[in-house]
Write a structure and sequence with these properties.
324 residues, alpha+beta, 27% strand, four-stranded antiparallel beta sheet, five-stranded mixed beta sheet, Metal Transport, Frataxin, Chain A, 2 domains, single chain, Thaumatin
């Protein structure tokens, strides 16, 4: 379904059927979609954000993700996991009048992030600026997440020294994962080349840059048969790597380091970190919005992911651009 919405205009729609893992795409100009055939029938060919030959590559676009269940629950979020593009904000109002909102990134954030990545590139010599994709006029229209860097080998060793220091630290200190679940606190130690956690059916090898950027490969890949402890340790361990918090809060030998423990003020403070994620959160008006897959791992009541949800939703308002 395509809907044209003029500047300053409002369009109302009523959801009458459940929708799972849906996307609401938006752009300044008309986007091109296609169809693909599979064993399940026809499917939607979506724009590929990192493909310079995609017919939408020159456009500034983005999407809002949402699910409307058969039971009437609505969940939605603004995702920057794969890229940062055109701004939007969301507000969910429940039938009791309570509201939840995510304000999105500030106007001009793509330009701001690209300029900052250029500064970071000069600081550490890594090709961060290549994450910026330009439109027909040469100006950046989106910023790719590091997992989609066009020259992946240039970052292949990026995390190696940091990972080595983490392995060294937790060979003589205990890493405690607060699983925030029935599994409680799980203690982990490094022995040889692997990190092992109590009650976990698998140990963890040293993650590569690709493993850390995506949180879904190598030691962070969950497969059928993995036990409950393994499935709750993965997101918390990878989040700590992405945010570079595992070398903070140096403790005397024998004391336990707990994660997640640090709030957003302590994320991305190490020189080796996900600078894309750091800059995305700096550009967000309220600091909310997934900058990587497990940005919903937070201590206490913090909410870096910016997901909204209600079992009794009344209205989901999506504002394209920034709400004044």
């Amino acid at each position: 379904m395509r809907i044209k919405v003029g500047a300053g205009k409002t369009v109302d729609m009523t959801l009458s059927t459940p929708l799972h893992a849906s996307r609401m795409w938006y752009a300044d100009d008309e986007m091109q979609f296609g169809a693909v055939l599979s064993s399940d029938g026809e499917g939607l060919k979506q724009p590929v954000h990192h493909d310079p030959n995609d017919p939408n590559a020159h456009l500034s676009w983005n999407f809002v993700e949402f699910t409307f269940t058969p039971q009437g629950t609505l969940n939605a979020d603004i995702s920057y996991v794969d890229f940062t593009g055109k701004a939007a904000s969301i507000e969910l109002t429940s039938r009791d009048g309570t509201t939840q909102s995510v304000q999105g990134v500030r106007p001009g954030s793509v330009d701001t992030i690209c300029e900052a990545l250029g500064v970071q590139e000069k600081a550490d010599g890594r090709p961060w600026k290549a994450l910026c994709m330009a439109g027909d006029d040469g100006r950046p229209v989106r910023v790719l997440a590091p997992l989609h860097h066009p020259n992946k080998p240039s970052f292949s060793t990026y995390w190696d020294k940091y990972v080595d220091r983490v392995w060294s630290r937790f060979s003589h200190e205990t890493l405690t994962i607060n699983t925030q679940s029935q599994a409680g606190n799980v203690e982990c130690r490094v022995s040889g080349h692997h990190l092992s956690c109590e009650g976990d059916n698998k140990s963890y090898s040293k993650p590569t840059a690709r493993d850390i950027w995506g949180c879904a490969a190598g030691p962070f890949q969950a497969i059928e048969g993995d036990n409950g402890v393994h499935r709750v340790v993965i997101p918390r361990l990878c989040a700590a790597f992405v945010r570079s918090t595992l070398l903070q809060d140096i403790l005397p030998p024998g004391n336990s380091f707990i994660t997640p423990r640090f709030g957003q003020a302590h994320y991305y403070q190490h020189e080796t970190t996900n600078h894309y994620g750091r800059l995305v959160h700096e550009c967000q008006i309220d600091g909310k919005g997934y900058a990587f897959a497990y940005d919903d791992v937070n201590p206490g009541s913090e909410n870096a992911a910016g997901a909204v949800g209600s079992e009794t939703p009344d209205r989901l308002t999506v504002t394209f651009g920034v709400k004044s």
